Structures are given as C-alpha cells and as structure tokens.
Amino acid sequence: MTMLRAAVVGVGHLGRFHAEKYASLPDAVLVGVADRDAARARAVADALGVRVFADHRALVGHVDCVSVAVPTRDHAAIADDLLRAGIDVLVEKPLASTVAEGMRLVAAAEEGDRILQVGHLERFNPALRAARDVVTRPRFLECHRLATFVDRGTDVDVIRDLMIHDLDVIQSFVPADVVAVESVGVPILTPSVDIANARLRFADGCIANVTASRVSLKRERKLRIFQPDAYVAIDYDQRTVRICRRIPPRGPGALAEITVAEHDVGEGDPLRDEVQAFLHAVATRTEPLVGGREALRALQLAERIAASLVADVVAP
User: Fold this and answer.
1) Pairing between strand 178-186 and 230-235?
2) Where would I find the beta strands (DSSP E) of 37-194?
3) Contact in structure between 134 and 140 (CB atoms under 8 Å)
4) 3-state SS assignment for residue 190
5) Tell me: the pLDDT tens digits for 113-131?
6) What is the C-alpha separation between 158 and 198, in angstroms, rounded?
7) Got the DSSP string for 243-270?
C-alpha cells in the first residue's frame, strides 16, 4: 500500500487520538496538525514529532488525507475546503450541523471524486461486528446511550451528539424507510435538548425505540435486537454479545427451544480500525464503511427527530 501523507485538523480530546493513530500506522505518515488553539497544536505536534500548520488551508499540497475533528459547527466549512482542494477527508460524526451542509459535503466529494468517510465509530466496535451476521430481519430494536455531562459536543443537541450513533447503526440493519416518528426531549444543562427518546416505525413494520442522554449519573451504551429467530443483546462498553436463538420444534407437539450463547469479544481498538479503514479506502479508491451518503441518511433522520421536538421543548 502506498504511504499516504496524513494530517489532523482539530487536536482536542478526540483529534489527538486520531493523530496518534496515524503516527502509529505503517501505511501512513503523519505530516502535521492544525488547531485554533496554537498551544494545544504545538503540544501534540511536539509529542509526535510533526509540524504545526497555521490552519487547514495551509495543508493543501502537503497531504493526501485529513481527519477533521473540530466542533460540529465547523465541519462543513473545513471539510468542504479540503475536499475541493483534492484532499480525502475523514470527518468526525455527525457529518455536519444540518442536512443542507451535509448535502454540500457529499456533493463536493462526489464532484471531485474524493473519499468522504464519517466517524461513526460504533460500526467498528467488536461487539457490533460479532453480532452483524446474526441480525437478518429485525422487528424491534431498543437502544440506550447514556452519558454523564461533559462540555464536548454541546454545540449540537443530544440527538446529533449521541443518538446519531444509534440511528446510523439501526439504519445499517433496517434498509426500509422511516414512515413515522414520535419523540420527546428536554434541555437540562444546555440551551438545546440534553435527553431525548424517539420511537421510529419503518415501512417494513420494524419498530425502533431509541433513548439518548448526556446528563445521566452513569454511562450506558446498549442495543437489543429482536427478530423471529433470535434475540441479540449488545453491550458496547463491556464488549459483550448475548445471542438467544429459537430452535424450531423437533417434532409434532414439541415446543420450540431456546439456546443462549454469551460472547466476550475483547477490547479491540475501534478508532485504529476506523482510521486504518479510511487509509485503505483512500489508497484503493473504494467506498468506506460509512461514506458521506450513509452518514447523511443518519443526519436526515436526526434532523427529523429534532424537528418533531421543537413544539414541545421549552428552554430553561
């Protein structure tokens, strides 16, 4: 594989880890980093032995691909500049603040034949990967994504900040269109919604119940999937999967049986896998696991859920 020149724009909490992954991978060379906070950029650059660039525009001509890990409000402007300059982009989730901005990024990537990958990290979670072959025809999905409060990501509501992970995963399992949305949410510590629940009905009859909170007292990330022949319970944090299968009756008058299998899939390194997959897509010019259009679909659903809340939400 060709050695690719990479950089990271935005080296805060998550961007710093992106930079470390590029620096550690054999098929890329980390050229440098950029951040509005000059001291933060210098600290990361010095730790990894790379250059500091004044801003993302200074990267043009020096890199092949870039991770964009800035606040969501800046995704569209920065990623659009890079894509139109001929640079492949891995942008953190969500794709953008709005569907309109997301559509602009998808168009820029397609017009310039650029790779656009979006950081929906759960797709690389080993627990989800272990369960994927079992999930064939989900009829009901239930997701809980709870987190204690931190000030990262609060430039958007909890739907775009946290729930969007589950919206992406659900839509990867259920190809049918969403035909109805019922939702409720309230702001607690920020001006936007901090805790929300959405009930989604799909055209094929599948139902999904999704809860996200960034103001909980404990952290929890779980997904339960029910289908005619199996029940699958995924704990993203514990990296465990429980698979209960229905075994058809063995003869006339017999009852169906249930088998239960517990799987501990280990820690893994989802971010390393995500960055490595991005580099592979760049080198081979193939569609990434979560490309711009898939991420746009998740953002469209998130915006639809958020819009359904507007009439009910009263800011504190």
Assistant:
1) unpaired
2) 51-53, 65-68, 88-92, 116-119, 140-146, 178-186
3) no
4) coil
5) 999 999 999 999 999 999 9
6) 12
7) EEEEEPPSSTTPPPEEEEEEEE-----H
Question: Which candidate, 211, 207, 204, 201, places its Cα nearest to that of 226?
Answer: 207
- As a whole number of angstroms, the distance between CA 256 and CA 222 comes to 27
pLDDT single digits (tens) 90-104: 999 999 999 999 999
Rounded to whole angstroms, the Cα distance separating 161 from 148 reads 13
Kind and range of the H or E run holding 116:
strand 116-119
Show the tokens assigned to 17: 């880890």
Q: What is the pLDDT of residues 262-278, one digit of tens each?
A: 888 888 899 999 999 99
Count CB-CB contacts under 10 A for residue 202: 20
The answer, as to whether pTM is greater than 0.90, is yes
- Unique residue bearing structure tokens 């063995």: 250
Domains and CATH numbers, the chain: 4-119+270-288 (3.40.50.720), 123-268+301-309 (3.30.360.10)
- Quote the tokens at residue 221: 């990330």
